[in-house]
Description:
The complex is a heterodimer of chains A (about 450) and B (about 375). Chain A is globular, with a radius of gyration of 24 Å. Chain A has helices spanning about 5-10, 55-60, 65-70, 80-95, 100-130, 130-155, 175-200, 200-205, 215-220, 225-230, 235-240, 260-285, 335-340, 350-355, 360-370, 415-425, 430-440, 445, and strands at about 15-20, 30-35, 40-45, 160-165, 165, 290-295, 300, 340, 380-385, 390-400, 405-410. Chain A is α+β, with helices and mostly antiparallel strands and about 450 residues long. Among the domains of chain A are: about 95-285 and about 415-445, Cytochrome-c3 Hydrogenase, chain B (Orthogonal Bundle); about 290-370, no CATH class. Chain B has one domain (about 90-375). Chain B has helices at about 1-35, 55-70, 70-80, 95-110, 135-160, 160-195, 200-205, 215-220, 220-235, 260-285, 310-335, 345-375; strands spanning about 120, 125-130, 210, 215, 295, 295-300, 305. A three-stranded antiparallel sheet of chain B has the order 5-6-7, with no helix packed on it. Chain B has a two-stranded antiparallel sheet with strand order 1-2. A two-stranded antiparallel sheet of chain B has the order 3-4. In chain B, α5 packs antiparallel against α6 and α9 packs antiparallel against α12. At the A-B interface, β1, α5, α6, α8 and α17 of A face α6 and α12 of B.
Amino acid sequence: MTTAAASQKIRRHTMMLNMGPSHPAMHGIIRIILGLDGERVESADIAIGYLHRAFEKSAEQSGYLQVIPYTDRLNYVSPLINNMGYSMAVEKLFGMKPTERCEYIRVIMSELSRISDHLTCIGASAMELGAFTAFLYMMKAREYLYQGIEMVTGARLTISYIRPGGVKADLPPEFEPHIQKAIAETRNVLKECHQLLTRNRIFVDRLKEVGVISKEDALAYGITGPFLRSTGIDYDVRKNCPYSVYDRFNFDIPVGSTGDNYDRYLCRMEEMEQSMRIVEQAFRDIPEGNLMVDTEGREIPAAMMVDLAKMGETEGFVELDVNLDPTLSGGTRQYFNSVEADEKRAVLPPKEDTYGNIEGLMQHFKLIMFGHGIQPPAGEVYQAVEGGNGELGFFVVSDGTGRPYRVRVRPPCFPIMAALPLMLKGGYLADVVATFGSVNMIGGELDR
Amino acid sequence: MILTIGIQAILAVIMISFVFSLAALHTWIERKQSALMQDRIGANRAWIRLPWWWARPINWLLQPFNVLGLFHPIADAIKMFMKEDYIPPASNKFLHTLAPCLSLFFALVGFAAIPFGNTIAIGGHVINLQVANINVALLYIFAMASMGVYGVVLGGFSSNNNYAVLGGLRASAQMLSYEIVIGLTIMGIVMIYGSLNLQELVRAQGSYLFGWIPLWGVLLQPVGFLLFLAAGIAETKRIPYDAPEGESEIVGYFVEYSGMKFGMFFFTDYLETIMIACLATTLFFGGWQVPYLAASGFLFPWGAALALPPLAVSLLQILSFILKVLFFCWLFMTIRWTLPRFRYDQLLRLGWHYMFPLALANLFITAVIVLWVLS
Lengths: 448, 375
């Protein structure tokens, strides 16, 4: 046999396998082009963009306020954190600071979002490894949190709750007991899941030493969040450059050591516990008082924000006896002021003013009408918050008009997706699912 | 002669209808038990309700079935039959169609050798409650189970789909490795009781240790039983051994099947589960044996006795068999909804590095003890 024939005989073929976008584990929005040698992954290529919605371009086309609903759809598992990041960027442009109470509410809401984000991530990746029961336990815990969020914002997913200058409405009185209950319930679920998974030999074997990334690689790719922390670097935006009132809370940043899937799982489990600690501290420390300030820093009392008008309770309205359309959103002045900054350039006036006097009406239309809107001073800011997956940054450029000149989002899972082939190569086909699950890829945020 | 054939045919019909209804019920058990375990309500949407006023009593009788979702298996079957039967254009159409039939056929024929009761005397005829009293029943069952792998492998390869090929590869490797373990674990039982005939094996398990502990296979072969359970679940291709399906990894060897052909693969899984449950019952839990129940009635070790007519004894034995099978079905279901899935290489390592040597050691020790006791 000649050498050519021999080499012909042992020539190896790699099997090309398109994993996704129509694949149960790929969320329908990602494609991994795998080169397989049997069950071994020889090459991996990631194709993204299946959920591209031109968020950044849309943001340039709409006013500052209209961007908020778009941000809900970035990381749709923890939309409150996106709202917060964007609103803080716009506030930074104005140089205004929300009220104390508002800051606490924002912290509570974004920590609740973080818990639900991690619950979804761990639950979904456990489900993809076959542990369906753990997934549904986690969904149960998330449901309690979502009910709390629904109580405050009126929505579960696209909440648009946090706005530049404050938040939409004050916390209802039944919110705190509900969340305390939800936290107790979540702790229960986490305990159950620890029992089901953490020392489960099959689960540990599936995750340990799988999808390993080194510290250096993680930093080089710009990875943040639980993914980076699992390699042993304790970078967390909440600690390293504290925003809002995070510097007042006592919480730890869990770090891993090996940077494998199991460490990421443990990091996320522990972070949920830390988030619950923050929420409890925030409930303990939350001040009474106003939620909104205007761009000049004047506080708007909390009572102004409750949507009495929405429910047709308009008797108390000053100045004028008007018949409000019950579908109108807004609030009575009393609540409005406590959650909104007293800034006429950024904050909609209370509905009694809009319908009651000419100044309010003019302010309302200046903010709503095409060609007007919120007009922050020209400049550019970058505001980062710690999202569920890592550093979620908003870079907003204002040219002084009613529309942002540029809104750029730094999605935390984008660098992780870029580094994914590194972690997949050399592993098994079944590890693709485990590693991909630990990325917690959210299409809305990745593709924008 | 004709009478014998007729009796065997009736037994076969009874067995197959029992197995089919249990498999259909299995889908319901799967739904309801997983729902219970996961704090859900579970299937309760398939209602049968007659619109006429005079049918109210019937509706009232149907109500518990409706609420419990017991009509879901029927709804499932209707759905499966109504769906488009899609054959991928690039597939091998003959093999593609043949595969689910092979799979279902070999899963079903094994049940012929399972004894579901002792003999029963009707009108002077003594009927052995077993469809086929085969002397090498164990070998027959494992031969059929091994043939079942062809359905899976052909289904994977004929679909002309990379995922299906991977599923077929995984299935063949997994089923071959675990069949060896199963074969070794039951050899212990065969050595102890000295028979390959399942009816003989069950009868041999009717004796008592110290006069009061039923001497079932599980007492004599505890390690063998555990290994058999672990390897048996691997045979059923269900979590934690569902690498061939791996619904979130490679979707499965049946990814290109739709309609009732998919349903046949689906059904095969349940049939195999029931088969393993039947085998575990027969080999390790005394089959149809009821503790202290002799042919004349109950004879308790403390001296009390309760005489029963022969028919009642037979029915009790059949009931005992069914209950034991249901217990194993429940156990497999609990395992399936608790554990995550093995990775393919871990699964093979478990089979070859741990279970195979353990089964060998178990066999060796059993052989030594049996020889020692006999000599």
